[in-house]
Amino acid sequence: MPNVTQCWVYRTGQAPREISLHDISEFIHEPHQFLWIDVNAPSSELLGILGEELDLHELSLEDALTMHQRPKLEEYGDYLFISGKTTALTDSKNFIVIIHHGLEPNLARARERLSREHNGFKPERGSALYFILDDIVDHYQPVIAQMHERFSVLEELLLRGGLERQELEKLYTVKRELTALREAIDPMQSVVLDLIRVHPEVATRELKVYFRDVHDHALRAVGTLDLLRASAFDAMQFHMATLTLRQNEAVQKLAGWGAILAIPTVVFSLYGMNFKAMPELNWAWAYPVVVLSTFVGGYWLYRRFKKRGWI
């Protein structure tokens, strides 16, 4: 994936202006303006340039390069570093750096809200960070809805007649993806709470209610994921119980038919031993009586087992 870097300069009451990455040093120290730097799939060399231009700590640059870790909030001097599964944010007094890896959420809406000073918020670190976190959390909602739909389809198949091996693998895949998604969203709650409680310079008095709204959205998303994960686990348990029940039914049928067939097997095996002293051999009605008795005994067992649902 090629490196893509976009930089915008925001001034209160003015439209944002796009600049080159190599020009950010000319704007970084100017008051009354805010820099938005968006980097996609950066190389170590590009991050090194950013680190020199913005005086970023080497540990934050290392985390931004590796990524794919649990979301966390770190404080390095006068700037904050927020890392996630595929996105890292570096937030300072007059700039914010967004670093993406892979399929990043589309932050065009956040940039647009910042440029038109949505809800009266000026382009600054607190409002920019709120718009970004709000978009990231909202980005998970359609993903959760899609996974809920996939699970509902598999659940309907399970209730109709059970799952085949391929469908069971799909159910397990959904459960695994739900777990991974929860691991990505759940720490966002503590990140937002830390911003509210520990960093009043970011979550100002006016912005606290909006950061709480982001926390509430993350909390509800985690609750929905927990419910889906529990439902997926219950579905797998239901599937295993259904298989066990079917196996028990098969064993019952085999045992029932085995008991029925045991009667003629015993009777006819006795006649196959060729004894001379068998009184009924000289009786004219012996054969019909033996056959009829065998049939009656087998039929009686059949009725008993049929009534109990064994066959």
Portion in helices: 55-70%
Radius of gyration: 36 Å
- Indicate the structural class: alpha+beta
| CATH top level assignment of the domain at 1-104 | Alpha Beta
What overall geometry do the principal axes of the alpha carbons give?
rod-shaped
In summary, what is this structure?
With 311 residues, this protein is α+β, with helices and mostly antiparallel strands. It has helices at 24-27, 44-54, 58-66, 108-115, 125-161, 165-198, 208-271, 286-308, and strands at 4-10, 17-19, 34-40, 72-76, 79-83, 87-91, 95-100.
Question: What report would you give on this structure?
Answer:
- It is built from eight helices and seven strands.
- The radius of gyration is 36 Å and the shape is rod-shaped.
- A hairpin with a 3-residue loop joins β6 (87-91) and β7.
- By secondary structure, the protein is α+β, with helices and mostly antiparallel strands.
- Among the domains are: 1-104, 2-Layer Sandwich (Beta Polymerase, domain 2); 248-308.
- The protein has helices at 24-27, 44-54, 58-66, 108-115, 125-161, 165-198, 208-271, 286-308, and strands at residues 4-10, 17-19, 34-40, 72-76, 79-83, 87-91, 95-100.
- The model has no long low-confidence stretch (mean pLDDT 82).
- The protein has a seven-stranded mixed sheet, sandwiched between helices.
Topology:
Elements: E1 4-10, E2 17-19, H1 24-27, E3 34-40, H2 44-54, H3 58-66, E4 72-76, E5 79-83, E6 87-91, E7 95-100, H4 108-115, H5 125-161, H6 165-198, H7 208-271, H8 286-308
